[in-house]
Write a structure and sequence with these properties.
With 443 residues, the chain is of the alpha+beta class. Helix content is 39%, strand content 9%. The strands form six sheets. Strands 1-2-5-6 form a four-stranded antiparallel beta sheet, with no helix packed on it. The chain has a two-stranded antiparallel ribbon with strand order 3-4. Strand 3 and strand 4 form a beta hairpin. The N and C termini lie far apart (115 Å).
């Protein structure tokens, strides 16, 4: 029964006794009950003037306003909800069949059962780990209430609800939403396809997606009917509000081409992918955009420091003291710095922009050079003397005023190396030694 109908029936059954009856409804009866004008003011009134029907005089006192409501809606835990459900069942059995009160009690019972289903305790045999679509879900023990389910987009009440987190992509959801998941783990995509989309917002249009979400295929449109279409700045595709929460992330293509670090709106899947890829060295800047080094001076300094560290690496590998001190572990967060000098991660570029990478790498470079040139005698013995001028201090290939022969790796003063038009003295000596040894080997 509709609300208006119930309200009309209520008003008909509980009339206000203080409202005077209209004369046009029953004028004859009103005239009979009207007291005579000739009667003295102190004469008693007729009895019929106060003989209102029971329906008119009902002020609602007959109802039990102070009784306990059917079904305890203020229940805060599972036990109270179950008690309220049992009480509601008993009330339904006691009320007359097909009565309005019984129908209202049935509605209350339905609401209580729905609330119990939402707050139902997990089963004791519920596994601690489940694998679904390459997700490795583990049951969480945290009681935080600030998490949001990535499937149903509702809050996770950690005190009374069980929830899982994927250890690969950190996908969070209720235990009841596990079987409804349709998104595979992003970690698997990172493992099989470790590369970025390097085109700035490659949009193809909503019609190319058949006006459906690029991930869950739900109907979407730009008019927000039936659902709002939200564009991901990383993929250029459109998503529904359940797959796109307006999360912000730095776009790699904009960084490489425009040195733009302003966060843009991306979908949930793109946000997880970028978060997992942020530390992977997959950007070869010299091939993607070599002109970037002409406009960003910090990148030139970082490249020089990385080249020097690669020249220091052979000293540490053969030095016992350096191996015991584990000097190379200073770069354990950026292992690619001791492997090559042209691969960068998105986190490296973020740190270059903020100035953190240049400062930390300069400190590490100073510490490495101090060990080789001052602290360690073994490393000092591996230095070079300029064979062109045969003057000056011991030279090392990572010194700023030196040049290294590309053939024999001999170190010279830079001025001496470029002023001397002859070939490298060490290369000439090695060639003579090789020629003198070959005849002896033939005999």
């Amino acid at each position: 029964m509709e609300y208006n109908d119930k309200l009309a029936r209520f008003r008909q059954g509980h009339l206000n006794p203080f409202n005077k009856p209209r004369e046009e409804e029953n004028p004859r009866e009103d005239r009979e009950q009207e007291p005579s004008k000739e009667s003295p003011p102190g004469s008693p009134l007729r009895v019929s003037e106060f003989q209102y029907t029971e329906r008119v005089m009902d002020l609602g006192v007959s109802e039990d306003h102070f009784s306990r409501p059917v079904g305890l809606f203020l229940a805060s835990d599972i036990q109270q909800l179950r008690q309220a459900i049992e009480e509601c069942k008993q009330v339904i059995l006691e009320l007359p069949e097909q009565s309005d009160k019984q129908k209202d009690a049935v509605v209350r019972l339905i609401h209580l059962r729905l609330k119990l289903q939402e707050l139902k305790d997990p089963h004791e045999d519920e596994p601690n780990m489940r694998i679904i679509l390459e997700h490795r879900f583990y049951k969480e023990k945290s009681k935080s209430v600030k998490q949001v389910c990535d499937k149903c987009s509702t809050f996770i009440w950690g005190l009374i609800q069980t929830w899982y987190t994927c250890t690969g992509c950190y996908y969070r959801c209720h235990s009841k939403c596990l079987n409804l998941i349709t998104k595979p783990c992003v970690r698997s995509k990172v493992s099989h396809q470790s590369e970025y989309e390097l085109t700035i917002c490659p949009e193809t249009g909503l019609d190319s997606q058949d006006y459906r979400c690029a991930e869950c295929r739900a109907p979407i449109s730009l008019r927000t009917v039936p659902s709002e279409a939200r564009q991901c700045d990383y993929t250029g595709q459109y998503y529904c509000s359940n797959c796109h929460w307006n999360d912000l992330a730095v776009i790699p293509a904009r960084v490489i081409h425009n040195w733009d670090f302003e966060p843009r709106k991306v979908s949930r899947c793109s946000m997880r992918y970028l978060a997992l890829m942020v530390g992977r060295p997959v950007l070869r800047l010299r091939e993607i955009n070599p002109l970037l080094f002409n406009y960003v001076e910090e990148l030139v300094e970082i490249r020089k420091l990385r080249q020097d560290i690669l020249l220091m690496k052979p000293y540490f590998i053969t030095c016992k003291e350096a191996m015991e001190a584990r000097l190379l572990l200073q770069l354990q967060d950026r292992q690619h710095f001791v492997e090559n000098d042209d691969m960068y991660s998105l986190q490296d570029l973020l740190d270059v922009s903020s100035g953190r990478l240049g400062a930390s790498l300069t400190d590490i470079h100073t510490m490495f050079a101090k060990h080789i040139k001052l602290d360690c005698e073994r490393c000092q013995a591996k230095g070079f003397v300029c064979e062109l001028c045969k003057e000056g201090d011991i030279l090392f290939p990572f010194d700023s005023h030196t040049s290294v022969c590309q053939d024999c790796a001999a170190v010279f003063h830079r001025d001496c190396y470029y002023d001397n038009s002859t070939s490298c003295p060490r290369c000439m000596r090695l060639n003579v030694r090789k020629q003198t040894q070959e005849p002896g080997e033939d005999k």
